[in-house]
Design brief:
Strand content: 15-25%
Radius of gyration: 39 Å
Strand order of the largest sheet: 3-4-8-7-6-5
Structural class: alpha+beta
CATH architecture of one domain: Beta Complex
Order of helices and strands: HHHHHHEEEEEEEEE
Number of strands: 9
Distance between the termini: 139 Å
CATH superfamily of one domain: Peptide methionine sulfoxide reductase
CATH class of one domain: Mainly Beta
């Protein structure tokens, strides 16, 4: 009887096991290792993500999302901003063309080009203070020039790609009127900037002496 059991054990040992582990000659641990190296997980791509999944907004995306317009921006004037008809009635055709249609007065013709009086230059449309006579200088350009603004909160600078070149347009931030352009070729001992402004975009308030 012992001989029979011993013979059966030998037969089973020689025939071997038919399980997947034995047939491959690798352990279960080796099998997991091989599967992790030969069949790596595929990272999700926009094409494989669920159609219902919403991407997390990035800071750049948030900045470009549509926002309510500022009531004081040129794109949306304030509620009390003058209408086009009102502007046409109180501005000269040249003033309207320059301030509302981004025109340019001929060089050397401006009313304030050679003004030497002390005072404040204001917006012809809304009277916002823009420049001081203290920063006005003769640039030789043919337009009134200033090396600094009077109140930065009243000035808006906008990229301008008209005429096939890149320039910086200057607008009145209070009403959106076109004033001129600013260039980095002003007095180096000051700010180095030249605000080249149309006279017809400006009004002037002369400084009064204390004795008056």
């Amino acid at each position: 009887m012992k001989y029979v059991f011993f013979s059966l054990f030998v037969v089973l040992t020689v025939a071997g096991c038919n399980c997947s582990t034995c047939s491959t000659g690798t352990s279960s641990a080796d099998s997991e290792s091989d599967s992790s190296t030969t069949a790596p997980a595929v990272a999700a791509t926009p094409e494989t993500e669920s159609a219902d999944a919403q991407p997390t907004p990035t800071p750049d995306a948030l900045e470009t999302e549509e926002k309510p317009m500022d009531a004081n921006s040129p794109e949306m004037p304030a509620d009390d901003a003058p209408s086009t008809d009102d502007l046409r009635s109180r501005l000269t055709p040249e003033q309207f063309a320059v301030t509302q249609q981004c025109g340019t007065e001929p060089p050397g013709t401006g009313k304030w080009l050679y003004n030497k009086k002390e005072g404040t230059y204001t917006c012809i449309v809304c009277d916002a203070p823009l420049f001081s006579s203290d920063t006005k200088y003769d640039s030789g350009s043919g337009w009134p020039s200033f090396w600094q603004v009077l109140e930065s909160e009243n000035i808006e600078e906008v990229e301008d790609r008209e005429l096939g070149m890149l320039r910086t347009e200057v607008r009145c931030k209070k009403c959106g009127s076109h004033l001129g352009h600013v260039f980095p070729d002003g007095p180096r001992d000051k700010t180095g900037m030249r605000y080249c402004i149309n006279s017809v975009s400006l009004d002037f308030e002369e400084e009064k002496n204390d004795s008056e």
